[in-house]
């Protein structure tokens, strides 16, 4: 796939289908522009109106945006609310108690449905159980779970009692889990005995125990375990460990929500940055929930009879905003899926869309690309073998979608009648930022089109000056928005430096991506990260994080990690390693490379595992000792170096690093 070069000349335009626009919440560009204009005319007033119309406030707010401690912005300060109340009680009061909230499908294909009433009951009982264990407002609770109704219940229950949750993706290692538990200072961990993936039972509780042994046990008082597989071999420490069903068992179905201030941290979610240590992104209750709700209405145009399916995991921001909170806050019916897109075969998504009559489907380009490949190999898994006519809207998230994948998705999944919303956003933004509105925006494959109303996205140069359309630059947001990151947990200095850098004037939000606006349409195209962050299969990984992990291996002297374009995963991780001993060659090099790849897999998790490792006697460095990553990226692509290498201390090294072992 030719990726970027084709993307920049893309000029196919897909108008919003008339049938879609007719019923859509935002049905024309004229309406979109009027909404943007409302923010231009009265920024605070427009946000205030939306916040009042959208959420239940126990105590109304007076201030809309408080900039007094910028860039630590506050929204709706005096207001009090509760996320769980807004996602269950408020929906039931609107008469939707019997409506299906979640259709859960297990890895093996068993289906469980729960109504808003039932969800409410389970959240309340578990929330009461947490309170009985001494968990309350301001406490931090780490979740290490797989996709399940219980995972959503646990997040909602934390929100109900004002405990701040921090979900750690179930694919992270014990060490990564331990670091996050300790950094966030969690007193309680919620997990499952095991998880089911692709027919296999994989450990969760055993990894929690390992994390506790690594150091987290000095702060964790309770471990709550959802019994998923009932495996007999799962370790259990009486006194500290509790079964989730026991915690809820004798509790009341009523649970008075903890009315928290709008700024109360709803959750902390760790993500990779350009230094070795992951950042705990803090999100505030009121503003976050407002945007999760509004984007469900604007981007997904959600209606009462929709069946919504976001295929992300609750361990990522997408699963927070578009599974645990957004769909529930609008009273939607959604699918929660435990398994893999390729099990029992690569037709699983299409089969589920057909069986559950999914109308809005939201997935990642990586998944689409892997299913294209799978259907080439096994035509039985091609979407054309399934009845997908329930679909009315498709979405894409996590990485740029290449036009080829976009066209395939449009034709074969959407039957050429479903708009595709290519949603650009980040863990830090809380919800969508730049995305088409399906009933209004003409689509261009590979472009996330235009910012949502109220989002003041722009492209600037290194000094913060606006760039004209048609010229690439740095993507920024010029004004705060309600669901923006509030802080980095325990590290306000890093927050300021990472997101509001002084070079740009200190008041522009720096997304960390490059972008370009089309000279004619002003549409945005994201050109990729401008920092040392990689995007592998839609997962964010810091190169420094992998480097620190590699040098922590006793045989490694030095390491440099770069990304290389990959047809399937977007980017692939290539690591250049200098060993303490002699540079290995042939079979010895292969053995060592395998060992190091497995080491990263064990220390961080499978998503960080380098695709390729190359060994050198040294790394290419300038005379001042700076590693020339630019050159390493060229070599990783298999291209010849055409740049001047005369400033290199050791140009001879490049020859060694040309080839994979
Ligand atoms: C980074 C954020 C968005 C939630 C899931 C990932 C890249 C995300 C797109 C898109 C091009 C995209 C950016 C961004 N990205 N969506 N539609 N087009 N790039 O959240 O892990 O915080 O990663 O993902 O590089 O900065 P995340």
TrEMBL record:
Residues 97-481 form the AMP-dependent synthetase/ligase domain. Its EC number is 6.2.1.1. SUPFAM superfamilies: Acetyl-CoA synthetase-like (SSF56801). Mg(2+) binds at residues 551, 553, 556. Its cofactor is Mg(2+). It catalyses: acetate + ATP + CoA = acetyl-CoA + AMP + diphosphate. It is an enzyme of class 6 (ligase). Residues 32-87 form the Acetyl-coenzyme A synthetase N-terminal domain. ATP binds at residues 398-400, 422-427, 513, 529, 540. It comes from the Bacteria. Keywords: Acetylation, ATP-binding, Ligase, Magnesium, Metal-binding, Nucleotide-binding. It holds the Pfam family AMP-binding. The modification N6-acetyllysine is found at residue 626. CoA binds at residues 197-200, 318, 537. GO terms for cellular component: cytosol. One of its GO terms (molecular function) is acetate-CoA ligase activity. Acetylated. Deacetylation by the SIR2-homolog deacetylase activates the enzyme. HAMAP family: Ac_CoA_synth. Belongs to the ATP-dependent AMP-binding enzyme family. Catalyzes the conversion of acetate into acetyl-CoA (AcCoA), an essential intermediate at the junction of anabolic and catabolic pathways. AcsA undergoes a two-step reaction. In the first half reaction, AcsA combines acetate with ATP to form acetyl-adenylate (AcAMP) intermediate. In the second half reaction, it can then transfer the acetyl group from AcAMP to the sulfhydryl group of CoA, forming the product AcCoA. NCBIfam families: Ac_CoA_lig_AcsA, PRK00174.1. This is Acetyl-coenzyme A synthetase. It comes from Polynucleobacter kasalickyi.
């Amino acid at each position: 796939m030719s990726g970027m070069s084709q993307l920049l000349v893309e000029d196919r335009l897909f108008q919003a289908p008339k049938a879609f626009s007719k019923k859509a919440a935002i049905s024309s560009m004229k309406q979109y522009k009027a909404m943007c204009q409302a923010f231009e005319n009265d920024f605070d007033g427009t946000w205030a109106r939306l916040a009042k119309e959208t959420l239940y406030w126990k105590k109304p707010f007076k201030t809309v945006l408080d900039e007094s401690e910028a860039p630590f912005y506050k929204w709706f300060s005096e207001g009090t609310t509760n996320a769980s109340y807004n996602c269950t009680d408020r929906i039931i009061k609107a008469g939707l108690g019997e409506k299906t909230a979640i259709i859960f499908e297990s890895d093996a294909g068993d289906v469980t449905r729960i109504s808003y009433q039932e969800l409410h009951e389970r959240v309340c009982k578990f929330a009461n159980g947490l309170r009985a264990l001494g968990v309350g407002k301001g406490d931090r609770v780490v979740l290490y779970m797989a996709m399940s109704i219980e995972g959503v219940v646990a997040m909602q229950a934390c929100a109900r009692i004002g405990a701040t949750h921090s979900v750690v993706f179930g694919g992270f290692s014990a060490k990564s889990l331990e670091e996050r538990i300790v950094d966030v200072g969690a007193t309680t961990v919620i997990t499952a005995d095991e998880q089911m993936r692709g027919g296999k039972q994989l450990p969760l509780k055993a990894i929690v125990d390992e994390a506790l042994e690594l150091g987290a046990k000095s702060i964790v008082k309770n471990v709550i375990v959802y019994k998923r597989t009932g495996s007999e071999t799962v370790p259990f420490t009486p006194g500290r460990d509790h079964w989730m069903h026991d915690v809820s068992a004798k509790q009341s179905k009523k649970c008075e929500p903890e009315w928290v201030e709008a700024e109360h941290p709803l959750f902390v979610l760790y993500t990779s940055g350009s230094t070795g240590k992951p950042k705990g992104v803090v999100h505030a209750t009121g503003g976050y929930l407002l945007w999760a709700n509004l984007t469900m209405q604007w981007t997904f145009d959600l209606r009462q009879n929709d069946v919504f399916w976001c295929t992300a995991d609750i361990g990522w921001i997408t699963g927070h905003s578009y599974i645990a909170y957004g769909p529930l806050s609008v009273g939607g019916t959604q699918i929660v899926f435990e398994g893999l897109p390729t099990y029992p075969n690569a037709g699983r998504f299409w089969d589920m869309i057909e069986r559950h009559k999914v109308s809005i489907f939201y997935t990642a380009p990586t998944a689409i690309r892997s299913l294209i490949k799978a259907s080439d190999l096994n035509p039985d898994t091609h979407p054309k073998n399934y009845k997908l006519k329930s679909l009315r809207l498709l979405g894409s998230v996590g990485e740029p979608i290449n036009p080829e994948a976009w066209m395939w998705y449009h034709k074969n999944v959407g039957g050429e009648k479903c708009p595709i919303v290519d949603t650009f956003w980040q863990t830090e933004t809380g919800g969508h930022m730049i995305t088409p509105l399906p009933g209004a925006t003409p689509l261009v494959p590979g472009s996330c089109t235009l910012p949502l109303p109220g989002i003041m996205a722009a492209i600037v140069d290194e000094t913060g000056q606006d760039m004209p359309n048609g010229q690439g630059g740095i993507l920024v947001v010029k004004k705060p928005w309600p669901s923006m990151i509030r802080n980095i947990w325990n590290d306000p200095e890093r927050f300021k430096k990472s997101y509001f850098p002084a070079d740009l004037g200190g008041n522009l939000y720096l997304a960390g991506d490059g972008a370009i606006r089309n000279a004619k349409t002003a549409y945005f195209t994201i050109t990729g990260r401008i920092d040392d962050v990689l995007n592998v299969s839609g997962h964010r990984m810091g190169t420094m994080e992998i480097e620190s992990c590699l040098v922590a291996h006793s045989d490694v002297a030095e390491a440099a990690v770069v990304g290389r374009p990959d047809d399937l995963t977007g980017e692939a991780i290539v690591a250049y390693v200098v060993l303490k001993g002699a540079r290995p060659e042939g079979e010895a090099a292969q053995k060592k490379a395998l060992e190091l790849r497995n080491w990263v897999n064990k220390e961080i998790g499978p998503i960080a595992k380098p695709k390729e490792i190359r060994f050198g006697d040294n790394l290419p460095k300038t005379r001042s000792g700076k590693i020339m990553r630019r050159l390493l990226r060229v070599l990783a692509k298999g291209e010849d170096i055409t740049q001047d290498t005369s400033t290199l201390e050791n140009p001879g090294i490049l020859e060694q690093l040309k080839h994979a072992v």
